[in-house]
Specification:
The protein is built from 13 helices and 2 strands. It is mostly helical. Strand 1 and strand 2 form a beta hairpin.
Length: about 300
């Protein structure tokens, strides 16, 4: 199933990359233009000819990328294929993998994590802290041993997307979590009456609550007991587990914002009304499909 337009047919995108600077930003290289398109768009002449290629294209204003062979393969070295990486690049990759392995190991075997006495009770170090510590240590080791150009870090798309996500978490997401956590009891009471009158609405309630608390686990903990208390069949609760993923309703989750930041084409974006963003329809399709499939499976096997 396909949704949306191909970039070749997206007039807004084509108008954007008609600007040589935008083309270079999106594709990471200057545009090469054909003679015909150069006559139609004089502003691209300098970019196309200066790139050293005449280019060919079946649409105005866009040619084969500089150094390309017309088959999607770039011959000027901008692709990662056949590129030789430095030993520091390989070293940094293995350091990162070591950090991930450490997190997995400490998560799988809780006995390896240190314990602390809190209010007279022994508690293991939280996995949230383990993940943060492991990744920070990995980053520090990479920075110190892999000849990283520290002054260029803040210019990378990964860094910019990450910073955007951090501000979103501190701002919108945590503010929403604080507000709804303070009123979760009232929400449970009001939503519980809806589930009591129509058990199938359990999925909708779970979907909405998961966004309010920004957590699948927290939504299930809050809503599943209400469903059981109101007589919703356990099989139905299991079938609608997929409805607990409602993060995407509002694009405030870090991964959503990171995707928007990574997409240089500008086609992954938040709409004018906020809720009409690039993730809403794929997300709704996924949740609906998972609920239907879950209901079918529990009807057959339970």
């Amino acid at each position: 199933m396909r949704r949306g337009k191909d970039l070749d047919d997206d007039k807004e995108f084509q108008a954007r990359i008609a600007d040589p600077e935008q083309y270079a930003y999106v594709y990471g290289e200057p545009a090469a233009v054909s003679v015909d398109s150069a006559l139609l768009t004089p502003q691209l002449v300098g970019a196309g000819v200066g790139a050293g290629g005449s280019g060919t294209s079946d649409r105005p204003g866009v040619g084969t990328p500089a150094g390309g062979n017309g088959h999607g393969h770039n011959t000027n070295g901008s692709t990662l294929l056949d590129r030789r990486f430095s030993k520091e690049a390989f070293r940094s990759t293995w350091i990162f993998f070591a950090g991930i392995a450490t997190v997995v190991l400490l998560g799988a075997f809780s006995g390896l994590r240190p314990s602390f006495t809190v209010d007279g009770e022994s508690e293991k170090l939280s996995m949230n802290l383990v993940i943060q510590m492991a990744m920070l240590v990995s980053g520090a080791v990479i920075l110190l041993t892999c000849k990283v150009k520290a002054n260029e870090i803040n210019n990378g798309s990964v860094f910019k997307a990450g910073m955007t996500a951090i501000f979103a978490v501190f701002g919108v997401a945590w503010m929403a979590d604080t507000f709804f956590s303070a009123h979760i009891a009232a929400l449970q009471d009001s939503l519980g009456s809806v589930v009591h009158s129509a058990p199938w609405t359990y999925a909708i309630v779970l979907f909405v609550v998961s966004k309010l608390v920004n957590s699948q686990a927290a939504a299930l903990v809050a809503v599943a007991p209400i469903g059981l208390a109101l007589g919703v069949e356990p099989a139905l609760i299991i079938a609608f587990f997929g409805a607990s993923y409602g993060y995407f309703i509002l694009p405030t989750y870090p991964s959503d914002l990171a995707c928007i930041g990574f997409d240089r084409s500008g086609t992954t974006r938040i709409g004018k009304f906020v809720i009409n963003h690039s993730f809403i329809i794929p997300g709704l399709i996924s949740v609906f499909t998972s609920c239907v499939v879950g209901f079918a499976l529990v009807s057959i096997f339970l």
